[in-house]
Amino acid sequence: MSAERDSAESVRDLARRFATDEVAPHAAQWDRDESMPRAIVTRLGELGFLTGPLPVEHGGSGYDNETFSAVYEELGRACSSVRGFLAVHTGLVSQCLGDHGTDAQRGRWLPRLGTGEWIGCYGLTEEDAGSDVASLTTTATREGDLWRLNGAKTWITNGGIADLALVFARTGPGERQQGLTAFVVELPTDGWRHEPLGVTPLGHRAANHARLRFDGVVIPDGQRVGEIGAGFGIAMSALDHGRLGVAAGAVGIARACLDAAVTHARQRRQFGRRIGDFQMVQADLADISAETEAAAALVTRAARAADTGSPDTTRLTSSAKLFATEVAQRAADKAVLLLGNRGYGDGFPVERYYRDIQGLRIYEGTNHIQRLIIARALLGRDEGA
Ligand SMILES: Cc1cc2nc3c(=O)[nH]c(=O)nc-3n(C[C@H](O)[C@H](O)[C@H](O)COP(=O)(O)OP(=O)(O)OC[C@H]3O[C@@H](n4cnc5c(N)ncnc54)[C@H](O)[C@@H]3O)c2cc1C
User: Fold this and answer.
1) What is the pLDDT of residue 3?
2) What burial class does residue 309 get, using C-beta atoms within 10 Å of its C-beta: 0-12 exposed, 13-18 middle, 19+ buried?
3) How far is residue 325's CA from residue 247's CA, in Å, rounded to a whole number?
4) Per-residue confidence (pLDDT) for residue 383, from 0 to 100
5) Which of 101, 72, 111 is nearest to 88 (CA)?
């Protein structure tokens, strides 16, 4: 086994120990509390996970995508709120700033994000711009060396606890996706506020989700990320990173469902036998197992495509997100049924997996949208249209 492979295995082991010892025992309580301690973010920083996939020259841990997927998977197995935090903070924000920021921007923001001193959020979605991101109406208007930001974002993970928001706004001159630009807003700042969503989420209850309002927030041009009008491409490239984390996290949920179902199938006796001795139960366990391995293999394939800079990365990443989240959805559904009334209450974690997996099918582009992305990659543009 090569030294690189050893190192990938040791990162997975580290993530598994952290997830098993420091996350999983508290996940149910954090879910009930609807928050997780800030100390968990600091620990993610100490372990090098907040900078995991960033190159060493940017202060990162330098993991390749395949290695970092294992971190997402292990965290997803323990707690989707923690895994979701990481996919946003590191996948959508830090990696995006690493890819598109200037040296000065990286030097200012990445070290703070890397230790967890600052928390990042990614502000794309608006009330009337969900799947149709190009229709967003938050505006940034240029005033010399400054920009003035007006608008509102909704369902922003970490939005109520963030120190830095990566925000996408309409600047023109082009229409729709041609007219979007990315900015960093350092928080708090005048004219900014966050508000609770006013709903109880189905899952990811330990995570923070908020609405962000920007009323004339002033942003120096030095906090513009990338070129004017390049925001849509920047937002999409960030989602390629984040979606890999979502897909790997879904594999973690599926594995956790399989573990819970197998344990129960061994222990629970009805009709004088282990329920695992009934063939219908065996079929469910076998299906979860086979589908989970297939999802894990697809995540690895997408991660390797990203690692080699393959032009097929987006199609494979969307395929992994689509397939792995649907596999985990079926696994959670079966696990709840196999645990009977225990699966229906919060004394066992499968009901949390069942709730959490719904979020993974919606955020970072719903699974309908993943199908559109895959089909677009297959078909190309209609030149006659
Ligand atoms: C837990 C959670 C965390 C989130 N975190 C963030 C975050 O950190 N940052 C952020 O910016 N956003 C975040 N979001 C928002 C999320 O990205 C959006 O909810 C998502 O992109 C879908 O938008 P929408 O909910 O407005 O649904 P809509 O776009 O209104 O879609 C409604 C339905 O119509 C379908 N649909 C829409 N268009 C098409 C089409 N062309 N073809 C087929 N079907 C279509 C959708 O798939 C969906 O089923 C989060 C959401 C959740 C639930």
Assistant:
1) 47
2) exposed
3) 6
4) 76
5) 72
Q: Which residues pair with 209 in a beta bridge?
A: 157
Residue to mutate, 88, 200, 363, 364, ligand 1, most ligand atoms under 8 Å from C-beta = 363
List, in order of start, the domains of the chain with CATH numbers.
3-119 (1.10.540.10), 121-229 (2.40.110.10), 232-379 (1.20.140.10)
Maximum separation of any 2 CA atoms in the chain, in Å: 79
**Ligand 1: residue whose CA is nearest its atom 48:** 366
β-strands 164-170, 120-123 pairing: parallel
| Residue whose CB lies within 8 A of the most ligand 1 atoms, among 80, 366, 368, for a mutation test | 366
CB 206 within 8 A of CB 31: yes
The H or E element containing residue 150 is: strand 146-157
CB 54 within 8 A of CB 106: no
User: H or E element: which one contains 319?
Assistant: helix 313-338
Ligand 1 neighbours (beta carbon < 6 A): 88, 122-125, 130-131, 155-157, 204, 209, 359, 362-366, 368-369, 372
CA 119/CA 357 separation, integer angstroms? 24
Span from the CA of 378 to the centroid of ligand 1 (angstroms): 23
Q: What is the mean pLDDT of each run of 10 residues along the chain (385 residues)?
A: 65 98 98 97 97 90 96 98 98 97 98 97 98 98 98 98 98 95 98 97 98 98 98 97 98 98 98 98 98 98 97 98 98 98 96 98 98 97 74
- Is the separation of the CB atoms in 90 and 53 below 8 Å? yes
What are the DSSP calls for 189-253, one per residue?
-TTEEEEE-SS--SS-TTS-EEEEEEEEEEEEGGGEESSTT-HHHHHHHHHHHHHHHHHHHHHHH
Helix (H) or strand (E) holding 170: strand 164-170
Can you tell me which atom of ligand 1 is nearest the CA of 207?
1
Catalytic-residue membership of 195: no
Helix (H) or strand (E) holding 275: none
Given the CA of residue 125, which atom of ligand 1 is nearest to it? 11
Q: Is there a contact between 19 and 75 (Cβ–Cβ < 8 Å)?
A: yes
No. of helices (H) and no. of strands (E), the chain:
12, 10
